[in-house]
Amino acid sequence: MRDFLPNFPLSPVPETGTRIILLRHGRSTLNDQQRYQGSSDEATLTDQGHLASQRMGQFLENCPLDTVYVSPLQRAQETLVDLLPYLKTQPQQIQTSELLQEIKLPTWEGRPYQEVRTEDSDRYSCWQVRPDQFQIQTEENCVFYPVLELYQRIQEFWQTILPWHRTETLLIVGHGSTNQALINTALGISPRYHHCFQQTHSGLTVFDILTPGRSQIHLLNLTLNPGLPKLKAGKQGVRLVLLPFHPDFPSQPRLLAPFNSVSIQEIIGENCDLLQQLAQAHLEAIVRILQGSQLSLRALPPLHQKELRTVCAIAPPPTLSRLLAHLFPFPHPVPLFPNTFSVVHYPSSQTSPILQAMNVTSSYGIFVAKL
User: Fold this and answer.
1) Cα–Cα distance for residue pair 121/119, rounded to 1 Å
2) d(CA 196, CA 353)
3) How far is Cα 286 from Cα 71, in angstroms, rounded to an integer?
4) Mean pLDDT per 10-residue segment, the chain (371 residues)
5) Residue 344: in which H helix or E strand, if any?
6) Residue whose C-alpha is closest to residue 155's, from 187, 189, 185, 191
7) Residues 6+ apart with CB under 8 A from 360
8) SS3 assignment, position 24
9) Helices (H), the chain
10) What angle do helix axes 146-161 and 176-187 make, rounded to 10 degrees?
11) How far apart are CA 241 and CA 263, in angstroms?
């Protein structure tokens, strides 16, 4: 195991596969204005976006990148320019691919989020609930399916590049919807589940493509921000935090740092040092001691809540992996690792859960000190 990513050892790249380091661009000017960007190229990075990109460069400084693929849109190009100087080993190739452009939203681009939700509510509802059926009109008044077009484009991307990069590690710098499509197509997950994996600005995801149609995800949506991931669907419903523990891997103090400013309503799981530490730090939380085999969806509180309820589940990795398998359409078991945490948001306004992060660690403090 090599510590190419701080606090996250990775096994060697599979002999017949390709390792993908996937990064969403930093926060942009249109993000700050709460407007849809789509494939338009008006937005540039904010100061916050530039800083986050530099920090991610520091995080990746020891990662051996063979090739970089990047979207042609300037917010992605700026992200790459910001992080490249921090890499100790520069990639052999940097290629811009038109196939990595963000999803095309012809009549929404530039419009405020709230305006679209109000004035185009039916289409917006379809976009949220049935993204594979979502259609929009082009300027030529033609019917266009943005998600299906995106997935077709990303499939073409994989088919074009993968034969050239066996045993290599690639960095791909893309966009929110583009990155979701890259993950889903690599894992063999339908466009119907387009919104099930969150991709935050400057969020990092790592997976291996082993063979066509078979991939293994290691890390989802790691950011170098303090605290838990932003709740894109609002502060309501249940936020489920999965904390795998193993008696041979004592919990590290920094693991619980992201929870210092979080109100936790309930702690469920096996009686271990990790549970006791969390309970002592959050005296307001209800604590329920269960054996690992008893921890299932039935043991959780009702998932539909008007106000946000944060629940921490502590159990051996296989138990929590089974819990994830019940919530998300992973085609193969997903390993969870001790001294990491994963976050699932089950918003009451939606019928499907969102995996906000998986196997992430608390790395924020390490990089703030460097800048």
Assistant:
1) 6
2) 6
3) 46
4) 75 90 98 96 97 96 96 98 96 97 95 96 94 88 93 97 95 98 96 96 96 88 91 88 89 84 92 92 93 70 80 92 91 90 86 92 53 42
5) strand 341-346
6) 185
7) 219, 220, 221, 222, 340, 341, 342, 343
8) strand
9) 29-32, 47-59, 74-83, 113-119, 121-129, 146-161, 176-187, 273-281, 317-327, 364-368
10) 60
11) 12
Sign, CA torsion 27/56/259/221: positive
* Whether 35 contacts 112, CB under 8 Å: yes
Show the tokens assigned to 38. Answer: 């789509």
Residue among 293, 298, 241, 302 at smallest CA distance from 270: 293
Q: 166 and 210 in contact (C-beta within 8 Å)?
A: no
Q: What are the C-alpha distances in Å from 12 to residues 17, 19, 330, 331, 358?
A: 10, 9, 23, 22, 20
Q: Which of 215, 277, 252, 280 is nearest to 340 (CA)?
A: 252
Instruction: Enumerate residues 6+ apart whose C-beta is below 8 A from 254.
Output: 361, 362, 365
Dihedral through CA 129, CA 135, CA 137, CA 138, nearest 10? 110
Q: Which pLDDT belongs to residue 77?
A: 98
- The residue assigned the tokens 């590049």 is 161
Q: What pLDDT, on the 0 to 100 scale, is given for residue 162? A: 95
- Tell me what pLDDT residue 367 has: 43
User: 189 CB contacts (<8 Å, ≥6 apart)?
Assistant: 183, 196, 329, 330, 331
Task: Give the DSSP letter of residue 315.
Answer: E
Residue of 202, 190, 168 lying closest to 89 (CA atoms) = 168
Q: Is the pTM of this model over 0.85?
A: yes
Say which DSSP state 230 is in.
Answer: P
CA–chain centroid gap for 69, Å, is: 19
Specify whether the CB–CB gap between 49 and 16 falls below 8 A.
Answer: no
Look at residue 3 in the predicted model and tell me its pLDDT.
65
Give the residues across from 241 on adjacent strands.
Answer: 312, 343
Distance separating alpha carbons of residues 150 and 104, to the nearest angstrom: 8
